[in-house]
Amino acid sequence: MNRSPTAPSFASNQSDLARILGVSRQLVAYHCKQPGSPGRRPDGRYPVADWRDYFAAFGRLSARGGIDPESYKDRFLVLSLAFLGEHLPACVDSALAPLKLSGPKLDRAAVRLWTALAQTVCNALPNDETASVPIIVPEAIKKIAAKRKIDLSDVDTLLS
Question: How many CB atoms are closer than 10 A to CB 109?
Answer without folding.
Answer: 18
